[in-house]
Input
Amino acid sequence: MKHTIRVYHEDTDFLGVVYYANYFKYIERARSEPIRDYNLKFNFTVANVCADFKSPARFDDILTVTTNLDYIKGASVGLNQVITRDKDLIFLAIVKCAYVVDEKPTRIPQEVKDTLKDLFK
Amino acid sequence: MKHTIRVYHEDTDFLGVVYYANYFKYIERARSEPIRDYNLKFNFTVANVCADFKSPARFDDILTVTTNLDYIKGASVGLNQVITRDKDLIFLAIVKCAYVVDEKPTRIPQEVKDTLKDLFK
Amino acid sequence: MKHTIRVYHEDTDFLGVVYYANYFKYIERARSEPIRDYNLKFNFTVANVCADFKSPARFDDILTVTTNLDYIKGASVGLNQVITRDKDLIFLAIVKCAYVVDEKPTRIPQEVKDTLKDLFK
Amino acid sequence: MKHTIRVYHEDTDFLGVVYYANYFKYIERARSEPIRDYNLKFNFTVANVCADFKSPARFDDILTVTTNLDYIKGASVGLNQVITRDKDLIFLAIVKCAYVVDEKPTRIPQEVKDTLKDLFK
Output
């Protein structure tokens, strides 16, 4: 699944590059797209993330966030998300999202699992 | 009323200065201090703001936000807020805050008025 | 000139609405579009802004920023910018941008004036 | 090394908690404190981070960021950073910072190593 990001002025820092925390905003925008399109209730929250900052992005860059499904378990989903600028690798992250209801980890209902599999088919 | 701000890395932009929208975060932090200290319910929302960007602040600057009360009306409060770095004028704003309950403008209760007058005495 | 904004998760606050400072990010994105498209050097900085917060925007809203030119003077440009969600008025701002070279206000070159007039025709 | 953070209004999201990317801002503030105090040139950049989101922080919380040194290698430094609210564990991260000059990974000079050891003694 692919999502396009424009680097805004607000995303940059005094070193002239995208401030490192903002890549987590970018991958979150990419994750929220399908949730919106499939009208899923907003029930996933990030439990764990590992990220590599490969190369800096800059003002006005057009970035692509590619999101793939690694696994669906009982109460969590594993994703990998890669940010590129043309052929340059900018950022990559392994993300574990927990299914959460009322701030408690909860088993993912079968219909949500089916929708997710469908989404990432 | 004075509040001290440190300019963080996250606040700067690729021009090497504080990104203009972030001054509004700074003055909001300054406004929220007394609300916390006096245990006021969080019922004010900004209705209108006019701001002058006088001189840029930079990474690691120590800034002072000075907040003064201009007026208390039936359903709103007028403040002026000035950001300085030593003797340098960085930013100034005239802010009108509406008293809001359930997202509707509401008359300010007398005890809130009294507390505000006390705060800015 | 119109620019479309999607309200991201990151833009909202604990009151469930868009955090007030973020509207200034939105109007800045709208202003930077033509600068990019016309390959203008990035020489404008906000000197003054007056803004009215009319109605709150929320997560996932699609907003339209409409930017109009009020005037071009020797060293500054006046814009008005309105944010709407369908027919709802969300935010409006009067913005004075100074033409700045090496952090000093500078006369706007005639070709930049011509480009701006062309842009907002 | 300990650093205190106040959760500002701007840090929260519509779920009523701190937006997940903002914890990376918090740990960056904590990392920059000693760099400032020791007048180190600002030459470290995050190469890799793994983070666990343990429990949500909320508006007005007072958080403590505890930063410990895991290792100093030729061109990088390993840190672990833990965010707590009283006895509650909020967030923890393992951070690899690369020493970077002109955007290129570079061997850490001996005096910088000595200063870091001194800092985290």
Remarks:
- The mean pLDDT of chain B is 93.
- The first helix of chain B runs from residue 22 to 37.
- Chain B touches chain C at residues 15, 20-22, 24-25, 28, 45-53, 56, 103 (CB under 8 Å).
